[in-house]
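Q: Given only this backbone (299 positions), what sequence would you predict?
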């Protein structure tokens, strides 16, 4: 079988696609990659919730699959929206890398007063931890963000630790414990989206890691019940069936949280509904402050 695998053109996206290509090639599958430009890559001057949310990084690749230009696409799973087009399936979820955030530093920790991130969740969690810091917007690929940190534009920035590990980057700083700084749903997981074709699905299924699929599936189920998008400060993390989910106010001063052991996605959905009830005011506040923009997504 010969497969054309779509990917974004960033260094991190190419690294993730190459990981999938190597795994398939080791099984005798012929592969090639095709770089697809996305609106999310082009619109770097505004926060994601103002230009359509994390789904911007996925739509162009979805369209390319449905048009037959590529057979499948590799994504950071946290970028994939909850609502998916017909004819597509998440054929494989690779074993999860670190789900945690990482605080990269350009100065001593006790001198940090300016932190860079465009994530509403990270912003709220940082302010919850230290309301005295100033959080400034920061977008761009990993290299761009690190360059701006080292140039002194920020004292600290927040990145996904998995991205640093995949690129083998060594950055001064600290891993933020996911139990306290609860990551976005599906962070650290790589997914392969494909046409809903039985032969293709069988080929890609060899890459699937069942424990990871179970945990990230629980995270996604809880997120769907919350009805939250990328504009809402929400963290959801499941490890070996232990689910933590929280909703924060934009300023980080208020938090609603649930923590349960879940046996399946239905139990995770029940947790999501419980949190949605407890955090109704916070969810409505976030939608109002951002104009309700952003697709419901695992990102």
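A: Predicted residues:
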């Amino acid at each position: 079988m010969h497969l054309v695998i779509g990917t974004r053109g960033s260094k991190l996206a190419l690294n993730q696609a190459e990981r999938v290509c190597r795994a398939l090639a080791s099984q005798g599958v012929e592969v090639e990659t095709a770089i697809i430009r996305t609106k999310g890559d082009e619109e770097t001057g505004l926060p994601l919730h103002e230009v359509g949310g994390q789904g911007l990084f996925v739509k162009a690749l979805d369209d390319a699959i449905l048009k037959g230009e590529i057979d499948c696409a590799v994504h950071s799973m946290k970028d994939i929206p909850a609502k998916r087009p017909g004819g597509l399936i998440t054929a494989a979820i690779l074993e999860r890398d670190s789900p945690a955030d990482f605080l990269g530093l350009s100065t001593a920790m006790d001198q940090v007063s300016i932190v860079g991130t465009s994530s509403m969740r990270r912003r709220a969690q940082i302010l919850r931890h230290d309301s005295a810091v100033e959080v400034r917007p920061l977008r761009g690929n990993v290299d761009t963000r690190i360059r701006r940190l080292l140039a002194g534009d920020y004292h600290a920035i927040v990145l996904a630790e998995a991205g640093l590990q995949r690129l083998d980057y060594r950055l001064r700083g600290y891993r933020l414990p996911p139990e306290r700084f609860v990551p976005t749903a599906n962070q650290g997981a790589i997914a392969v989206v494909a046409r809903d074709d039985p032969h293709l699905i069988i080929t890609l299924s060899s890459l699937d890691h069942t424990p990871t699929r179970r945990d990230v599936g629980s995270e996604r189920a809880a997120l769907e019940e919350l009805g939250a998008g990328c504009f809402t400060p929400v963290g959801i993390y499941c490890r070996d069936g232990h689910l933590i989910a929280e909703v924060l106010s934009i300023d980080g001063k208020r938090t609603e949280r649930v923590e349960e052991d879940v046996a399946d996605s239905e139990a995770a959905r029940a947790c999501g509904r419980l949190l949605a009830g407890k955090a109704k005011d916070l969810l409505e506040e976030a939608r109002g402050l951002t104009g309700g923009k952003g697709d419901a997504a695992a990102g």
